[in-house]
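Students often ask what a 'structure token' actually looks like in practice. Rather than answer in the abstract, let us consider HAUS augmin-like complex subunit 1, a protein of 304 residues. Its sequence is given first.
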Amino acid sequence: MSDTPDYPQQPATELSKTTSGSFDTNRIGEVKSWLASQFDAAGKDHVPDFEYTSRSISHLHNLATISQARTQAASIIANDFRLKASEYRSQAARIREILENTGLAQEGLPANVVASSQVLANVANLLNIRDTELSSFLVAMGDVSLRKTGVEDKRAKVQKESKILLDYTRKAIARLTYLKRTLAQLEDDVAPCETQMEGWKTNLSILVSKERQYLQQYSNYKAMLNRVGYTPEISHGMLVEMAEHRKDLEKKTKPILDTLRSYQDLPPDKALAALAIEDKKRQYNAAEKYLEDVLQSALATSED
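Now compare that with the structural description of the same chain:
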């Protein structure tokens, strides 16, 4: 990483008025050398020409700083890996020498022993253990069993959740099918409903006009009742009672009216009235005599 200090950037108005020589020469040099190394590593002969501005120099300088830091870190890790590889090779040569001195070299062992040793080494690598001790294998197998149990628990949980989601999905599909069927039915009912609504609109206009007519009649009848002295105290029961009283009065006044109508048959003149009275008396006497004759004849017939 470069130890060059960060200088404050100049305002854009000042940069537009000054030449390229007024830029930070140290940063420009670092950027140019970094670009040349990067293009050289990529197999390019030269760096393309471009305008060096305050913004581009600042951005490229940040990229160069980050790249150099990461390159240095990668170099440190690579050197460490090389050192470890050399140590492992030295250790392997020493172990090989010990095995050859004890007669346990790979070339002198039976094929089945070599195969078993290779399988044991592969299992140790698979279990990520550094030795082939029985305790290490048991610990590793216990760890694998625990992880297997955890995986089985997670699998059971996922299966349960999948079953619930499948159930929800089936219900959602059934509901969607029902909604689609309902939508199709509603779409089929649109035309008849529109026709019915048009009829209702027509009837509504008629009802509105009738309402206005009835309201006007109601106001007229109310004014008429007010003129004749109608009050809310006049109820149906009172009207029935008055009608019955009227019938009683008619029954009482009917004989009087009949008598008065009989007097209407009399002539208006007094002399004529006297003559009419005498005529009525004669008719009465004739009727009385006729009645006596009838009675006498009836008595005579009964005696015979």
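One point worth highlighting: Helices lie at 12-15, 25-41, 54-101, 111-127, 134-188, 190-228, 236-264, 270-303. Ask yourself how you might have guessed this from the sequence alone, and why that guess would often be unreliable.
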